Predict the structure.
Amino acid sequence: MRLTCTVNGASQQVDDVWEGESLLYVLRERMGLPGSKNACEQGECGSCTVYLDGLPVCACLVAAGQAEGRQVGTVEGLAGAAALSPVQQAFLDAGAVQCGFCTPGLLVATHDLLTRSGRPSDPEIREALAGNLCRCTGYEKILDAVRLAAERMSEPGAHR
Amino acid sequence: MDFLRPTTWAEALEARAAFPGAVAIAGGTDVMVGINFGRLRPASLLDLTRVAGLQEWGTEDGAVRLGAGVSYARVIGELGDRLPGLAMAARTIGSPQIRNRGTVAGNLATASPAGDAHPALLAADAEVEVASVRGTRRMPVRDFYTGVKRTALAPDELIAAVSVVPPSGPQQFSKIGTRNAMVVSVAAFGLALHPDRRAVGTGIGSAAPTPRRAPAAEEFLAGELTSAGLWESRAELPEATAARFGELVAAAAAPIDDVRGTARYRVHALSVIARRALTWAWADYRNDPAKEI
């Protein structure tokens, strides 16, 4: 089947999509957007987290046809033309990236959290990131990165 | 495989009748796992996410009618005050990503004994509204579960909504798992105190072939509260009453040993979480004297 949707603000159309295919497969294998990672394929790990109509979801659990006409946002859409997003920069600066496999999902989940809540408490951060597994960092640096991004984004005139 | 995308409820029911091999999909948190792992290869997918009205909830005859497409995240965000037990259960389900997609009706359709919405729905005497081109019918949720992952849905029926009456008293939910997020419950328990009709509602999860109530525990507790005048006095609940209630809840379970826990552990855990849930609910009841009944 043919699938048309908006990804990171640009209209995308792909053909020959199998009806049982996930949005994650479409993004990675048909649209050339491999930022969202394919790990557990059962919604456990969060490494495929993308925005679907503004809500963070596991792309592996969205049937391709369910994205028809919808707005999809992936990790590739977070950075601006000139600079990384504050969330991405904070992950780099805080050393929150080791193997990097979980990072795209954590970036989208963190971006969502900080868009909704300017200065989240630690329990709020832990709850918001509860669906994203990291097997390298032990999460401490990730929590540091989220706090750093929140601080920078809440400064007057900061871009989000 | 066909991908069917009805935009009205009538179209959805027609498609359900015309394509018996179709699998309905909403949040996809169960269906897509089956497809991704090659365990499920339906002749077609019946996507319900575009059906107008299915994503809405409203009040009807004093009950909240929750459209089949309402996500757990919206139950938490929009109905936490009116459906506290269900919202508590919803908060423990999966992760934010899962709660943004998964639905109460999907939990019902999958009918896993471990589905976390079930104990809350059972305790609150929820009703399930199912429909087909033949018409609409409603049933108490306790009649909906017929076996392990089996339901009273006919092959041509879809779940339209779940109706839950906002409670006259406190509700609680408790579950046991290996961590907070993304866990399949080892045992779960839902409790509702109904002071308006001097009744108690319970729901047991992950400890029997289907979600089930604990009728003996309900009758025991309602009887104790009535005979001791506790509904009116809101006095302290005797510890022995709470402990006996926990034992009777555990006695209603029929669990199995599996990878997540042994039957013996589940029975023990249920007696503990049921007693705790009652203790919390009773504390809520005592602290809310403003609510005249």
